[in-house]
Design a protein that fits this description.
Elements lengths: L17 H19 L5 H8 L3 H29 L1 H21 L3 H28 L4 H32 L2 H22 L13 H24 L4 H23 L13 H31 L4 H29 L1 H21 L7 H28 L6 H40 L5 H21 L6 H37 L8
Helix pairs in contact: 1-5, 1-6, 1-7, 2-10, 3-4, 3-5, 3-8, 3-14, 4-5, 4-7, 5-6, 6-7, 6-11, 8-9, 8-14, 10-12, 10-13, 10-14, 10-16, 11-13, 12-13, 12-16, 13-14, 14-15, 14-16, 15-16
Length: 515
């Protein structure tokens, strides 16, 4: 039953109602679908909205930033005012966001819709997990409940690229977003009917100054990183954004040091093993999602695969984890997180280098298959071991804080992936393409048109712009430059994963993890 005032959990200790478990699993299924949804249709989004490379990066980051910055806050809101309310409200927010996205006539309005969806997803990720763990203190019951939650999350990741690709091929990009909005409304009703309210308000307080300062710092940093290639790294606006990000980050640290209820316990970072695990989370997840973003651009934009064909590699990547999860749990208990982190990060690095070695025009599945399997295997190993590495590094009394903080920095790494890799790729591609146009031998008038499109929208725009006969000359040049740029991005992600593997091998605490 829904509660109008916060009170301790109404779910009997150790007894999680099946209906509530179903609601929690449905909620995380929806949130994960939203996170993965653009992967197979980035190419269609780019063409439909005539988006530049920077604008396409914002489509992903508009969803990811709210998750990285508000998940901890929604955890507190759920504890104080009721986790069922957060589930229902989060699903409704995602439905509203997808309505805005479906009706969007400009890429800027699409960003707004994606941001609203990200806020809703943050509420669903945080509250669905807390609702389940709070009601199952007994380890065996909790393990089974978490297995169901993880399966729902993996199923969402597996289904999203197939569904998005299929809906776009059958209908249109607008209906692709409307389709998820309908799913969100159904799950909002499901949560309202099935979930039992629970809360635990004692000692929980909101840290609004910390929340606002870190959110603005990340937005300023992302703006500078994503817009730097287009505006110029010496642009006053880009420089001001970098300075503002630093100032806001310093302000956040000062706020958290003085706050009676900080959203981020900075004292944990004085523990070397915990700091190492946090660094691995940021760098490793940056490497993984950066590589996945490159794969999406190669398939949808450079190779021009259909949305459904572009979905198949992502199904393979996401499909590995559910099959190996029972083995991962046993490995974690027997060997601890360190060897799993090292193996997983090295697997990710090898997968990115393998993909980089393949021509972007070679979209046949067999040559890509080893890279895709290694990517899925590496992701599963790293995600399974990250939280355990953080929890092993701190006293038992701080395990909850360590887990929440690790989730936050992991999401931060995922947010930085598309932004930084997109910047690296487009900067190199723009330079190469400018040189190629200069020696292309095009008549002055046509050269001026091509250079104008490049200046206005970047290499992605020139690769897909309807320029008539001129496209037969400039589009191949643009795709060649983009291939080189995104290959450089894959090299960066591989180096990042190897660096994280070294940190894990040297600094992450070893030892077995309790069941």
């Amino acid at each position: 039953m829904s509660s109008t005032t916060a009170r301790p959990s109404t779910i009997p200790s150790g007894r999680l109602p099946v209906a509530t478990l179903v609601a929690g699993c449905a909620a995380v299924f929806l949130a994960q679908i939203g996170l993965v949804w653009p992967a197979a249709i980035n190419g269609v989004i780019q063409v439909a909205f005539r988006a530049s490379g920077a604008q396409l990066s914002w489509v992903s980051d508009a969803f990811l930033v709210p998750i990285a910055m508000t998940s901890l806050t929604f955890g507190v809101l759920g504890d104080r005012y009721g986790r069922k309310k957060m589930l229902v409200g989060g699903a409704i927010a995602m439905a509203l966001g997808y309505l805005v996205s479906a009706l969007a006539g400009t890429v800027q309005l699409l960003w707004v819709g994606q941001a609203i969806c990200g806020v809703g997803a943050a509420a669903l990720f945080a509250s669905s997990l807390t609702m389940i763990t709070a009601a199952t203190p007994e380890p065996g019951r909790r393990a089974r409940a978490l297995a169901a939650w993880t399966t729902a999350l993996s199923t969402g990741a597996l289904a999203a690229p197939v569904l998005s690709g299929a809906v776009v091929e059958i209908t249109s990009i607008s209906w692709a977003f409307a389709f998820v909005g309908v799913i969100a409304l159904v799950i909002a009703v499901l949560c309202a009917v099935l979930a039992r309210e629970s809360s635990a308000p004692e000692g929980r307080a909101l840290d609004w100054p910390g929340q606002i300062s870190i959110a603005l710092a990340l937005l300023a940093l992302l703006f500078a990183v994503i817009e730097g290639p287009a505006l110029g790294w010496g642009s006053p606006l880009v420089i001001a954004s970098f300075v503002l990000a630093v100032l806001l980050l310093v302000a956040f640290v000062r706020i958290e040091q003085r706050s009676p209820a900080p959203m981020l316990r900075l004292g944990l970072f004085r523990i070397p093993a915990f700091s190492a695990s946090a660094a691995v989370a940021v760098v490793g997840m940056f490497g993984f999602l950066g590589g996945a973003y490159v794969l999406s651009i190669r398939l949808g934009v450079i190779a021009h695969l259909s949305p459904l064909a572009a979905a198949v590699p992502f199904v393979i990547v996401q499909g590995v984890t559910p099959f190996i999860w029972p083995v991962l749990a046993r490995l974690l208990q027997r060997f601890g997180p360190r060897p799993m982190l090292v193996t997983g990060l090295v697997s990710l690095a090898v997968s990115h280098l393998w993909l980089r070695a393949l021509p972007a025009t070679d979209t046949a599945l067999p040559p890509m298959l080893p890279s895709l399997v290694l990517m899925g295997l590496g992701f599963g190993l790293v995600v399974c071991a990250l939280t355990a590495a953080a929890v092993n590094a701190v006293p038992v009394s701080h395990a909850g804080m360590a887990s929440g903080t690790t989730n936050m920095v992991r999401d931060l790494g995922q947010t930085l992936g598309p932004a930084i890799i997109g910047t690296v790729a487009l900067s190199q591609a723009g330079t190469l393409l400018g040189g190629s146009l200069a020696v292309s031998g095009l008549p002055a008038a046509q050269l001026g048109v091509a250079q104008g499109v490049l200046a206005a929208g970047g290499p992605l725009a020139l690769a897909t712009a309807p320029l008539g006969p001129l496209s037969t000359t400039v589009a191949p040049l643009a795709r060649t430059a983009l291939t080189s740029g995104y290959d450089a991005g894959l090299l960066v992600t591989a180096i990042a994963c190897l660096a994280a593997a070294v940190i894990a091998a040297v600094l992450v605490r070893g030892g077995q993890t309790p069941a």
